[in-house]
Write a structure and sequence with these properties.
Blueprint (H helix, E strand, L loop, with lengths): L2 H17 L15 E9 L4 E8 L4 E7 L3 E8 L5 E5 L2 E6 L2 E6 L4 E6 L1
Antiparallel strand pairs: 1-2, 1-8, 2-3, 3-4, 4-5, 5-6, 6-7, 7-8
Keywords: Lipoprotein, Membrane, Palmitate, Signal
Protein name: Lysozyme inhibitor
InterPro entries: MliC, MliC_sf
């Protein structure tokens, strides 16, 4: 039953993304005020990643808009340094103003900067 709130959250995010082209709105369960920020990263392979971060005291998510594929919801996971997010077959690992976007199934990585 722990997955029910997450499933509802993902469904709400998907519906809001279908209705508008702006950053989707999402209310995280948990405590404390929610912070939302949207950043655009320019990558070495010529693409741009638009990333919307949703954070509160208990939850941290990143919604990464992948060019040509849509948006992927990624959850923050333990990292030795920086902030690491995993979702589906993708990984987004940031530190400071830069990040590495990885397609895990075909072992492709690209470096990105704000």
């Amino acid at each position: 039953m722990k997955y029910l709130p997450l499933a509802a959250m993902v469904a709400a995010l998907t519906l809001s993304a279908c209705q508008q082209r702006q950053a989707p709105t999402l209310t995280l369960p948990g405590q404390g005020p929610q912070q939302t920020s949207r950043l655009v990263y320019h990558c070495d392979d010529g693409t741009q990643l638009s990333v919307t971060y949703y954070n509160n005291d208990l939850n941290r998510l990143a919604v990464v808009a992948i060019p040509g594929q849509g948006e992927v919801v990624m959850a923050n996971v333990i990292a030795a340094s920086g902030a690491k997010y995993d979702g589906n077959a993708f990984e987004w690992w940031t530190k400071g103003n830069s990040g590495t976007f990885s397609r895990l199934m075909d072992d492709k990585h690209t470096e990105c900067k704000i």
